[in-house]
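User: I'm curious whether this sequence folds into something compact or stays loose and floppy. Could you predict its structure so I can see for myself?
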Amino acid sequence: MKDRRPEQVLEQVRLTLENWRRQGIAGFDCRAEVVEMVKRWPQSTVADNATVVTEGTGRQSLEQIRADLGDCHRCRLHKGRRNLVFGEGSPNARLVFVGEGPGYEEDRSGRPFVGPAGRLLDKIIAAMKLDRSQVYICNIVKCRPPANRAPAPDEIEVCLPFLKRQLVSIAPEVICTLGSVAARTLLETKSPVSALRGHFHQWMGIKLMPTFHPAYLLRNPERKRQVWEDVKKIMAFLGIPL
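Assistant: Here's the prediction. I'll summarize afterward.
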């Protein structure tokens, strides 16, 4: 059982209000301005001894989130997909990898990072003295964009609440974003990965380390050294000896 951080509780409240508002549920104050107010609540407004959500008192499981996602037709990406790729790994992972979106092999298998880039990610995970069963791997969008293009802003907007719910459910100690789309989306920035990588950022009170996508490394192997530097910082934070 894991305690929820206060800022994670606020994010869950915000996501719930957004969902209710979109569904037109009456009886709750789900106006857009109220949702925006919740989004802006600073962490300092939460008492240090605030009650947090745990598995036994309302924490959403990954299975529940997957069930809510269903056979998703919320954006155009469903039209060309073979399989929805939700994510896989430990629901109690200390480390979550977040990529951009499924590729050809992922779309065929329904699993994240199983193509050439995935095999390189497996090597990175192994170099960290971990394996896939100990981490969690997912993407910003759950369906393959046509021709492996970057997901469009409206596609990201539709899918992002499910990713956020996954991250809140897992409550990892570190999120490692792979590539520019994942880093820019979660950090809400337009800065390039080259400027973001190398040091920790914060997402909902969780350490976030941006680094290059494994697919980029396949085209630019000289960048592997920089990724290894990023990975070593994650290992040090998690207490994994080099």
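Summary: The chain is about 45% helix and 10% strand. The two ends are 29 Å apart (CA to CA).
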